[in-house]
Structure formats: C-alpha cells, structure tokens
Amino acid sequence: MKEFVYSRASGLSDLTAGATIIAGGTNLLDLMKHEVMTPEHLIDINGLGYDQIEEQADGLRIGSLVRNSDLAAHPLVRNRYPVLSRALLAGASGQLRNMATTGGNMLQRTRCPYFYDTRMDCNKREPGSGCAAIGGITRNHAIFGTSDQCIATHPGDMAIALRALDAMVEIDGKRPRTVPFADFHLLPGDTPHIETVLEPGDIITAVTLPAPVVGEHRYRKVRDRASYAFALVSVAAIIAMDQGRISHAALAFGGVSHKPWRDPAVEDMLLGQTPSADLFAKAADLLLEDAKGHEGNEFKIPMLRRTLMAVLHDTTGMELTA
After folding, report:
1. What DSSP letter does each residue of 160-220 carry, written as one string?
2. Hey, what's the torsion of the CAs at 154, 260, 252, 145, to 10 degrees?
3. Which of 113, 123, 231, 254 has the fewest other C-beta atoms within 10 Å?
4. Which of 75, 84, 90, 22 shows the shortest CA–CA distance to 232?
5. Neighbours of 190 (CB within 10 A)
6. What number of CA atoms fall less than 13 Å from residue 79's CA on the CB side?
7. Which residues contact 130 (CB under 8 A, 6 or more apart)?
8. pLDDT tens-digit profile of 113-164?
C-alpha cells in the first residue's frame, strides 16, 4: 500500500478536490492493498451525521453512513422492506456488515480478478488498455449489458434489492439532486471506468424508499458456498397477488450485469396473469432473450432461468412440480 494523507471531515466544505472519501473502507482498503487505487489523500466522512434511518410519510430515508448490520436489523426494514434485509444478510460476513455503509456498498467495485491484478489489461482500471477477461476466465462475469470493453459484474447484494424497491439516491455537491437508483449505475459501453453518475465533488447523503408494497418479498442468491461468496446469480423479487392474479411484480437480478439488472417487459408480462409454470417459463424466455454468455459463464443462463422460476413459484404460492 502506498503512503497517503488521512484527515477527517467535519462538513462538506472539508471535502478537498481530488481526495478520496472513506467511510467503512471495506472495499477501498482492499483496492489500496492491491494498488488498484492509490489515493494520495483520504477524507473520513464518518463525522458528517448521515447515519440515521428516518420514517417518512411516503416511505423511508436511509442515511448513506448507516451500517449494513444496523440497516438489516432495523424493525422498519425487516417488517416493511424484508427483501432489503434479506439481501444485506446474504452479503459478506457479520464483521464486514458492521463496518460497511449504505453509500459505500452502492459504490463497491467489481471483483473481476483481472481488475484486481495490475499486471493484466483492464479498461476499467486503465482506460484503453484492453479487457483480459474477454477470452479469459469468465465464470463470474456478466451475461447482460456487456460491451467489447468490459464484461465485469456489479458484486453487491444490497443494490439488487434497492433496484427492486425503486429506491432514489440523494446526492450533494456542486449540483445537488436526487436520481432514481435505476439510473445511478452505468453500463460499461466504451467507458467502463465511469461506473456511476457521480461527478467530482459529489457525495451520497441518503437513499430513499417509496411506500412499501404489501406482498411477498424474496432474495435468492446462488453462490459457490453458503456464506462469504459473491452471487453467481441472484434475484430480488416483490410480488403481490389480488384474487389469484399477479397485481405487482418487481424483479431485479444480480451477478449478471455491470449494474443491478431489471427488465420491465418481464414484469409487464406477469401483471394481471394467473400464475402457472407456462407463464413463468415465458417470463424467463423473455428475460434471457438478449443474454450473452462467454465461454466459462454460459451456465449462468439456465441457472438464472431456474432461479427466477423457483422464486416466482415461491412468491405466488404455486407448488413446484417434478
């Protein structure tokens, strides 16, 4: 790890141009140890007070410094937004959740091994150098939204649930604004090193959730081992039923794209329909219509199909048949 200057911020005015923000540091410190990131100045923002969970008339406001363990255990989250609590508990370890923050979790960077290995070409780490993952080991890489420049995946669990919940992101800086969580992360295109809509000097202050949907909330994560492993595929689902038909469907997918993935056409297909194995198979067909596997990760396509159909059976009350 290279030497750096460390300071603590007491207000937004202390956020020096060019400095790197640190809160929990669970991802940043790893990147610094590997010298993937070599900041000269770290500014600790833990004293800025963005660590509250507040009930609002139309939902919930979560400060960007709220720790993952506190968020997962909060009664309002567990009772009204259980998909978020379940996603958080599926990620990392208890020790890491005690340190990791809401904002930092949203900003965690890909776990692509080529990104972490500074001997390898990586357009995300060094724009224009190439992508060693393409043609390399792709087991954990994306099947949606890839480009010739990058096939890395977003590694988070929390973000997948926030995408299904239609969260909003509050941003402060030179241009204070609130953006839909759906627009916060970017696909790689020709600029995989630009991962979010944050601009220089921006800071995430909070995430807001709309009024909760009364229905079945599920987060299913398929991974190589039972704990402390990133998703091969994951599904965050919120399904509501009315008189035997699907009245609300929100489905977000992890482990399969550079950003939390969601396909509104799949949800539209389900709305107003009576659950059936045939309907779920058609929804999976539509979701995977544009999926593109690479040698080494093509197994994710049938895996995601099976996972989606199992979650839909579970959330609609349909019994799986052999």
Report:
1. HHHHHTT-EEEEESSS-EEEEHHHHB---TT-TT--BS--TT-EEEEEEEESPP-SEEEEE
2. -100
3. 113
4. 90
5. 12
6. 6
7. 121, 122, 123
8. 999 999 999 999 999 999 999 999 999 999 999 999 999 999 999 999 999 9
CA atoms of 142 and 160, how far apart (whole Å)? 15
Is residue 297 within 8 Å of residue 139, measured between CB atoms?
yes
Helix (H, G, I), strand (E, B), or coil: what is residue 221? strand
Residue 221: both structure tokens together: 């994560």
Task: Find all residues with CB under 8 Å of 298, minimum gap 6, and list them.
Answer: none
Q: How far is CA 298 from CA 43, 56, 67, in A?
A: 42, 43, 35
Which of 120-131 are b and which e, b meaning 16 or more Cβ less than 10 Å from the residue's Cβ? bbbbbbeeeeeb
From the list 63, 69, 64, the residue with the least C-alpha distance to 84 is: 69
Phi, psi of 164 (to 5 degrees): -70, -30
207-251 confidence digits (pLDDT tens): 999 999 999 999 999 999 988 899 999 999 999 999 999 999 999
